[in-house]
Amino acid sequence: MVAASRVQLTVLRGRDDECRAVRCLLDGVTNGGGALLLHGESGSGRTALLTHAHRHATGCTVLAASGLAEEAALPYAGLQRLLDPVSHHAAALPTQQRDLLRRALGGNGSPAHRRLALSMAVLGLLADVARDRPLLVTMDDVDRGDPLTAQVLAVVARRLRNLPVVVLLTADVAVTVDGIPAHRLRPLDQGASVAVLTDRLPERPAASVVTALATVGGGNPQALVDLAEVLSPAQWRGEEALPAEPPADGALGRAYRARLDRLSPDTRRMLLLAALDADGTPGTLIRAAAAAGTEVEALAPAEVAGLVRVEPQGVTFPQPLVRTLIAASAPLAERRAAHRLLAGVLVADGQRLRRAMHLAAATAGADPALAAELEEAASGGAGGWPVASAALRRAAELSDHPAQTAARLLSAADYAWVGGQPEVVRLLLDRLRTVSTDPVVRGRADLLRGEVELRCGAASDASARLLNAAEAVADSDRALALSGLVRAGEAVCFAGDQYRYAEVGRRALAVRRPTDPPAMELMGSLVAGVAATLRGDHERAGPTLRRAVVLGGRLSGSAVTPTALTCAAAAGLVVAVDGAAHRLAERAVALARDRGEVSMLPRALELRAIAEYWQGRHEAAAETSRDGLRVARATGQVNYANVHLGLLAVLAAIRADRDTSLRQIREIGESPTPGSRPHALAGWALAVLDLIEGRHAEAADRLASLARLGTGRGQVLVQVMATPYLVEAAAHLAHRPAAEAALAVFDRWASSTASPLRRALSARCHALLAPRGSAEAERNFQAALRLHPMEAGTFELARTELLFGQELRRSRRPRDARTHLHQAREMFSLLGVACWAERATTELRAAGESVGPPDLPAARLLTGQQLRIAELVAEGATNREIAVRMFLSIRTVDHHLRNVFHRLGIRSRTELVRAFASERHAGLAPTGDPGAGLDDLNYHR
Predict the structure, then answer these.
(1) Which residues lie closer than 8 Å to 603 by C-beta, 6 or more apart?
(2) Residue 242 sits in the same domain as residue 203
(3) 787 and 756 in contact (C-beta within 8 Å)?
(4) CA distances from 103 to 99, 148, 497 (A)
């Protein structure tokens, strides 16, 4: 088992729920004890959590021991080591219990029929120890030691309700103990993994480095620590190749090697074959076993040890790192022999790529024929893009001609990028520099490097690289050059340097031809249309962009690619055809997923989320951006991860979810440069929060600073989206030239589109800037209400009703105001937007109408944790009982319950019970076991 001493050196990253559960037990120990089992794979930080408990157990006596495999055959050996420091307390036990305990701890065992009596003797001993001070008892790796100790501790742990004793046990991931609450230590998420690494590196490394290492570590804390310890300075600076797996001689590798050493040679041989044949079928492993002179049944001891799972469909590794460490710890000669054996049995299967990969792994030196076989077998991403990339890398190593080496390295880099491996791309392109001086090859490589930098690195530098690379390849491949110019334009917009888009447009015009196929015409139309939009030439931009949308819908055959579809979707958003843009983005997402082209997903999901925002589908947009965030992080696209965080922050702010919005902004951090898209989205979100809280000047200043109109600097397109909020904030100010200038830009764009929503928002903005109570204000509000589409943008329609109602009330027309305020309140209630529904309710009261709180189901007003607490209260649970069941402190439960009362507009537990009873009667509230799902809740809250 891994000793986690190094994992515990800093704060326990990603283990907040487990630490909270431990502290909750210890904080309440004087009122009654309890037990907890912490189980997870090797290196998951189980020992570190026990050390955390020891540090937190101030005022407690602590007894601690570990299960030792060397003593597993010695009955009660672990119990003896655990209780030895307090064995003198046995004198306080009744004679029979004292004698029974001393006999067992003295090595004389205990009859099977007396084991309950022995357990009660141990419980009595612990009770006596805890007489003066509460007691914490911990047994690490309880499953590795003698089973009788584990049985006694389990019996004791189930009987602590009335004693000031806490028992904490740790065990392997597969171990459970009936009657004892358990927390499974899940793999760390990407953010926690990155934090573990940065805690241990001498300087803050490049984001791409820690992202790649976090993926290699598989969320295992000890694996991450081991990786950090073996990195050279050049590696953590991103100048050399990173390890492909945790070191075999690290703490985690040694722990698994110790487990392997206890297995027979046949079992280890079969484990190695299973580990190397990652995609193998049962038939392959059966034939490999026969060729090795053994059989698949030799895996049984490994299955009992929890290393593998043998199922009819094949052999799987419950912990993915185990596969890697088994292969890494085997001697080179054994690995090569196993690869040759697997290649031999794959001949009959027709598994061309797998067979070639095994042969390549067993080959030393150049082998041109095998290199050609690998290249052909991997063509088109066969076997998955990362596998195909690895095959081409190996083909490059086996090549004996520089031109072939360069071509294979470039293809390997391209496949790695499509498969979402930016660090692999960078290393392959660095190697390519030393292999080829051909300007076209270097131009193609720079196009790929520029795209990687746009998504994963310094986006402000990417545009120049992409422009130069597109020029280098224009004579040999116009389609590739035009694709590079599209990416250059994307980089310019991302960085907030829209003034440079004119150059992108000029170069694209030089590359285009009247006879271009539809996919090339689409890309050229997008660049030309965006360039015209950014210089304010909407008369020319509109038809050009609509042409791109039409072409995107007509693409067929090999011309249909995620890249082409995202270009068409982007054109649709600029020209405000939201439905078509959403369909194109949706198609791009589906196609990218189907083809495994994961690097294309974050951009496609961004466009889909923006389309859903304009359609008023905020929940759908948030879910899309959460998906985009997950994919962007998994593929190292830190820039687009920040874009999705920014979109999520805006969506949360619009729904007045301040805490969530600020959390997303904090996650963006300080990495985005001022003027970039993530920076602007974060500013938009903060401005909306300012607006909601009445800080109108601050909100207007933030939104006005998103772009510097007339200079082409800043996020012009983001500011256009945010203009309705800028105008709303400025309406409360005496001087508002920035808002009027932004509205003029918005008007020119909106009037060039066929979008009723944009025109409705324009009319609403003019109403807000008109003199209060004037006919002009009312006329514009009425125009906005007529223009708002009913099938989309319901949220914006409700906002217009609310703002019109406010205008009428403040103009001393309360009767007219109430009609619009009722409409707003009803729509916000149906949308589940509690803050805005409450605001409409407040306005109605100010307009002289007596109304209660919005009639919203509790499930839509409360967070998941608040809802669970409210359900338990409705079931009659006390705050203390809720705290125990949810592993929270009583103070935290009190805090959540106060928020529940506030959100539901009630004042007592009795009212809460009535509210839930009425909702259940109406079929609005969740029903079923109030404790169901608590484990999931605790892991994710």
Answers:
(1) 455, 490, 566, 640
(2) yes
(3) yes
(4) 6, 14, 81
